[in-house]
């Protein structure tokens, strides 16, 4: 809708009406009695290990049975999940039609993965899948203490205003959702105070945001040694990796808890953080296996997420290798009391990497900007073996030659002394078509 001529050429008040009408229709389709009932059932799993185990076991069995019965790719396997092979995006893309169920009925919703680390994967869903996904979103809102009538801010990848627009306001309103929607594509430093004021003036109680977007605002607050002036219940982040350092920064500057959500469009895994900061694997969302993948720098065991989706009978994926990694935790219980398994942290997609001087791929780059004063956002671009450009958005009053040297020193310590780094100041970091920021782009 956002890219249509009707929307782009309409006055702001008409755009608000179009947004609100779209939200009303989506709400009616997704949040029905079935969704409400499933939300209650999911919330009941939080503290009941036996109910959770029964739900997970029953759902997995149904998924495997239906996959064998209806999906060409799976018809040769037994009903034990260990007889199914591991698959990945490339294999699914090579066998697209063989994963599609012939049992199509009602509305089919089509979408795809972003494709930022390879070819995008197109995945159809039925309305049952959409409704179920909404129930899990509702439970996450419940974890975050967000109530039905709370005003919210939405700061994600929607093209709320045309990218070429240079003057504000860079936000619109969805009246049926009590929501202000703000563009992630216009977070230039000169606009940041306007974003903060717009949310404060609207009286939002919660923010749903891409990590890169909310971290940009938090770093702006930090560079000005101030705090968000509104009163928030919580912030929910998703769709990008969120480092522990950035999570702590956002919580400090916005004076509330961040509830981070990890999920994929393939619907093969979901991980959510609670009010105590622990990450929980949601075992009623999908069947998750953790394949050993060596040790992290801090000595913790690393594992790749492999998932089997529960909530898309039209396109079931069994034992799908995500390419995303987590660090395992020694904890077996959480102060929150929820009974889901705990992991230490999410490393995120391993597709964003740089080549170090020894030829090794380096995926984890979060600590390179650490300790650099006045740095609002950054991105690493490598198109030659020993040359890397670092795009930076900065507070010019604080980011000076000394800070530039610290950034270069951190990068050399991580990637190698022989690599040359060019630091290029920009007004904003380029985003993908989905409004996300890639941490690193390697063109080698």
TrEMBL record:
- Cross-referenced PANTHER family, in alphabetical order? CAPSULAR POLYSACCHARIDE BIOSYNTHESIS PROTEIN
- Transmembrane stretches, start-end: none
Q: Which InterPro entries match?
A: ANL_N_sf, CapK_Type1_Caps_Biosynth
Q: Which intervals of the chain form a coiled coil?
A: none
One molecular function GO term is: ligase activity
Per the UniProt record, the source organism is: Pseudoalteromonas aliena SW19
Q: Which domain of life is it from?
A: Bacteria
Q: Name it.
A: Phenylacetate-CoA ligase
Q: Which UniProt keywords apply?
A: Ligase
């Amino acid at each position: 809708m956002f890219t249509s001529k009707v929307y782009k050429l309409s006055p702001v008040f008409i755009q608000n009406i179009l947004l609100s009408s779209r939200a009303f229709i989506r709400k009616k389709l997704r949040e029905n009695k079935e969704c409400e009932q499933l939300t209650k059932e999911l919330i009941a799993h939080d503290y009941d290990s036996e109910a959770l185990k029964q739900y997970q076991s029953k759902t997995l069995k149904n998924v495997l049975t239906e996959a064998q019965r209806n999906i060409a790719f799976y018809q040769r396997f037994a009903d034990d999940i260990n007889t199914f092979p591991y698959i990945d995006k490339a294999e699914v893309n090579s066998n697209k039609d063989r994963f599609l169920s012939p049992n199509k009925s009602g509305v089919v919703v089509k979408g795809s993965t972003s494709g930022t680390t390879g070819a995008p994967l197109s995945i159809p869903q039925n309305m049952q899948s959409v409704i179920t996904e909404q129930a899990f979103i509702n439970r996450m809102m419940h974890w975050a203490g967000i109530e039905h009538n709370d005003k919210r801010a939405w700061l994600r990848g929607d093209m709320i205003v045309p990218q070429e627009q240079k003057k504000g306001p860079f936000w619109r309103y969805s009246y049926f959702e009590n929501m202000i929607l703000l563009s992630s594509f216009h977070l230039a430093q000169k606009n940041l105070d306007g974003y903060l004021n717009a949310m404060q003036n609207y009286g939002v109680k919660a923010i749903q945001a891409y990590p890169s977007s909310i971290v940009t605002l938090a770093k702006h607050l930090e560079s000005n040694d101030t705090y968000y002036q509104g009163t928030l219940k919580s912030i929910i982040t998703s769709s990008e990796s969120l480092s522990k350092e950035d999570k702590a920064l956002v919580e400090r500057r916005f004076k509330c808890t961040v509830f981070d959500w990890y999920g994929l469009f393939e619907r093969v895994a979901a991980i959510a953080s609670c009010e105590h900061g622990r990450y929980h694997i949601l075992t009623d969302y999908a069947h998750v296996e953790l394949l050993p993948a060596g040790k992290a720098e801090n000595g913790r065991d690393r594992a790749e997420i492999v998932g089997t989706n529960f909530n898309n009978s039209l396109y079931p994926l069994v034992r799908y290798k995500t390419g995303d990694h987590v660090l395992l935790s020694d904890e077996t219980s959480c102060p929150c009391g929820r009974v889901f398994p705990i992991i230490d942290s999410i490393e995120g997609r391993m597709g964003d990497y740089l080549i170090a001087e020894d030829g090794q791929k380096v995926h984890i780059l979060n600590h390179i900007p650490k300790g650099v004063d006045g740095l609002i956002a950054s991105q690493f671009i490598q198109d030659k073996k020993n040359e890397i450009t670092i795009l930076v958005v900065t507070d010019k009053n604080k980011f000076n030659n000394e800070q530039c040297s610290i950034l270069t020193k951190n990068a050399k310590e991580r990637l190698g002394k022989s690599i040359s780094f060019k630091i290029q100041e920009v007004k904003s970091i380029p985003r993908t078509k989905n409004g996300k920021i890639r941490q690193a782009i390697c063109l080698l």
